[in-house]
């Protein structure tokens, strides 16, 4: 359907998905400026019966109304429009540019507990809003969760606007059927009776998938049909218990609301639990800690500033100015970190500190001042990293996070996200300062287990492309091959741009060598006065711009030299000798040919004389009356008074 137009408005770009309920398209809205992208879901009822269509239409409008309300949440795509056309129903929703969580999950790559916890909290916040509106999603799965590339925010998609209606039922009655995806559907949903906890179950299976790398359809099951997974994951007891309760087979034994899950998650130590820490201590110094004789006492975190710790090397004693005061952590100086120690059983912990503190203080002075890292300490450090990131103090954030990582391997899981965020922030800052080489080196430090990995990968490729572009300019315009190759070396091998950059750099080196030889030959010819040869050689260089300019200049100089050449001196030519007399011409009589008789050309005969036709002379006719005689005219020759009559 690509290229077609829906409702004279939405230009279809491609088909995103197709199933039994309908088809999903990616399209552009041609009625809006810049033609923004949108997602169109075409829902096709499985019957043309008028009563069936009427029920489908009513449910479609009802579900569209619900989607309109759900779209008010910032992590749910907005419903832009809905309409009916030719007995098909269409929903138009906001397009989210991102990648699905399914692309982040892999059997070969497990999520750290910190990432799972952050993911669950983010998704549960969305589900709480959905459930508060009385809506059950019924199809929570990785493909319906997408992480937006711009800010790594998770969005919940595909609510299934219309429930399937069975046309085989009498009077086209509405029926509830099993809607969902195998592996993520609990028993009650398979039976067609979903519950709010059904969505919680599905989300829990995704969390287990992330921790174990095992797909839900491949989960091991107990005799009671409960999921067996903890032996395949590195997870704290608290987190394991929450996930276990989220995926109980009996929905009545699960969490009955999202709020309950969120409340328990808030109580989970950030990855390193007390049990893990105790095990780590016991494994490190079994002769100093006797778990059976140590009195149980709630752990607490006591902050000690470096000034309050003193060491007596003769007795290996450590004193504190006031061990009863729990001072709040203070902001450490740049390049240092606060000193924490955990207190458990009074007697045993003091014995432990007597041995540890003298050496730890000495070592800590050079590596940031960390003594022992407990759950609360790591949580505070994570909060401090987030605070430093918010203040754009990326260098301090990185120093603090890396120091914590070197002190405690278990800190990796909890500090992975905030430290990766600082790496990314520092890289962006370097890129803004046009220090692209340093930026790409910094962004490669972002862990592939963090939620910022995909954004970091995108930035890495973008900045690597800019480095390649800069290297290309150094070669083509400046002619500095050495600087261009140095730029290529800055592109990490993990970038998709690296292969293209290496291929171009090889071409640059070959062209540079060839052009250098041609320019050398052209200059030599010009110097030796062989301007025509210099021009011919220089014309062979067509690119890049740097070498083309040099070649053009050589041609210009050669043409100028040709124009300024002095006129050549005339060469002496001996006078032309007189031509020798030749023999007189021999008389050649004219060639006479026998006359050939030519008969005269006869013309037309002369015209025959024809006398004019004569007519009879006219007959005289006498006048009818004779003419009167002429009268004598008397002239009066004496006019006047003297004349007499």
TrEMBL record:
It comes from the Bacteria. Residues 619-631 have a biased composition (Pro residues). Residues 291-338, 565-645 are annotated as: Disordered. Residues 10-271 form the Protein kinase domain. The keyword Nucleotide-binding applies. The keyword Transferase applies. PROSITE patterns: PROTEIN_KINASE_DOM. It catalyses: L-seryl-[protein] + ATP = O-phospho-L-seryl-[protein] + ADP + H(+); L-threonyl-[protein] + ATP = O-phospho-L-threonyl-[protein] + ADP + H(+). It is an enzyme of class 2 (transferase). Residues 301-326 have a biased composition (Polar residues). Keywords: ATP-binding, Kinase, Nucleotide-binding, Serine/threonine-protein kinase, Transferase. One of its GO terms (molecular function) is protein serine/threonine kinase activity. Gene3D superfamilies: Transferase(Phosphotransferase) domain 1. Its EC number is 2.7.11.1. Transmembrane segments: none annotated. This is non-specific serine/threonine protein kinase. It comes from Acaryochloris marina (strain MBIC 11017).
């Amino acid at each position: 359907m690509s290229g077609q137009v829906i409702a004279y408005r939405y230009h279809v770009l491609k088909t995103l998905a197709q199933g039994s309920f309908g088809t999903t398209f990616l399209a552009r809205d041609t009625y809006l400026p810049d033609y923004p992208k949108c997602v169109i879901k075409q829902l096709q009822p499985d019957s043309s019966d008028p009563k069936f269509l009427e029920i489908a239409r009513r449910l479609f409008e009802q579900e569209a109304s619900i989607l309109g309300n759900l779209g008010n949440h910032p992590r749910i795509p907005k419903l832009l429009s809905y309409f009916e056309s030719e007995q098909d129903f269409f929903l138009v929703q906001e397009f989210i540019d991102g990648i699905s969580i399914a692309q982040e999950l892999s059997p070969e790559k497990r999520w750290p507990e910190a990432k799972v916890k952050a993911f669950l909290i983010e998704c549960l916040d969305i589900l709480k809003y959905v459930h508060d509106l009385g809506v059950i999603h019924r199809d929570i799965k990785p493909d319906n969760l997408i992480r937006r590339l711009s800010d790594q925010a998770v969005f919940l998609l595909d609510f299934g606007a219309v429930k399937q209606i069975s046309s085989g039922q009498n009077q086209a009655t509405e029926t509830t059927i099993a809607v969902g995806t195998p592996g993520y559907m609990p028993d009650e949903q398979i039976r067609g009776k979903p519950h709010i906890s059904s969505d919680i179950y599905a989300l829990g299976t995704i969390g287990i998938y992330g921790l174990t790398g095992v797909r839900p359809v491949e989960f091991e099951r107990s005799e009671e049909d409960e999921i067996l997974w903890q032996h395949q994951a590195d997870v704290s007891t608290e987190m394991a218990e929450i996930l276990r309760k989220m995926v109980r087979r009996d929905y009545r034994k699960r969490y009955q609301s999202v709020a309950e899950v969120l409340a328990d998650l808030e109580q989970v130590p950030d990855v390193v639990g007390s049990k893990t820490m105790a095990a780590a201590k016991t494994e490190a110094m079994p002769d100093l800690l006797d778990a059976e004789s140590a009195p149980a006492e709630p752990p607490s975190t006591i902050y000690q500033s470096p000034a309050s710790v003193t060491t007596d090397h003769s007795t290996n004693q450590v004193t504190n100015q006031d061990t009863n005061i729990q001072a709040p952590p203070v902001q450490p100086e740049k390049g240092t970190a606060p000193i924490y120690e955990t207190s458990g059983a009074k007697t045993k912990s003091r014995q432990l500190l007597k041995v540890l503190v003298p050496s730890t203080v000495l070592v800590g002075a050079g590596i940031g001042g960390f003594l022992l890292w407990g759950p609360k300490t790591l949580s505070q450090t994570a909060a401090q990293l987030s605070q430093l990131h918010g203040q754009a103090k990326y260098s301090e954030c990185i120093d603090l996070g890396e120091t914590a990582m070197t002190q405690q391997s278990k800190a990796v899981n909890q500090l992975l996200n905030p430290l990766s965020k600082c790496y990314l922030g520092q890289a962006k800052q370097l890129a803004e300062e046009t220090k692209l080489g340093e930026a790409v080196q910094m962004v490669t430090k972002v862990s592939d287990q963090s939620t910022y990995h995909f954004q970091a990968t995108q930035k890495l490729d973008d900045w690597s492309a800019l480095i390649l572009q800069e290297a290309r300019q150094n070669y083509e315009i400046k002619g500095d091959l050495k600087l261009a190759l140095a730029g290529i070396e800055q592109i990490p091998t993990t970038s998709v741009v690296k292969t293209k950059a290496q291929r171009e750099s090889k071409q640059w080196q070959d062209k540079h060598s060839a052009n250098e030889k041609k320019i050398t030959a052209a200059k030599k010819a010009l110097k030796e006065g062989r301007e025509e040869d210099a021009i011919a050689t220089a014309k062979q260089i067509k690119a890049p711009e740097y070498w083309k300019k040099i070649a053009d200049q050589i041609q210009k100089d050669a043409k100028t030299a040709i124009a300024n050449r002095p006129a050549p001196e005339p060469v002496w030519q001996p006078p032309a000798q007189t031509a020798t007399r030749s023999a007189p011409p021999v008389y050649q009589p004219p060639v006479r040919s026998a006359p050939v008789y030519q008969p005269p050309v006869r013309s037309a005969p002369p015209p025959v004389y024809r006398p004019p036709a004569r007519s009879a002379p006219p007959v005289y006719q006498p006048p009818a009356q004779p003419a009167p005689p002429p009268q004598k005219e008397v002239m009066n020759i004496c006019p006047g008074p003297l004349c007499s009559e």
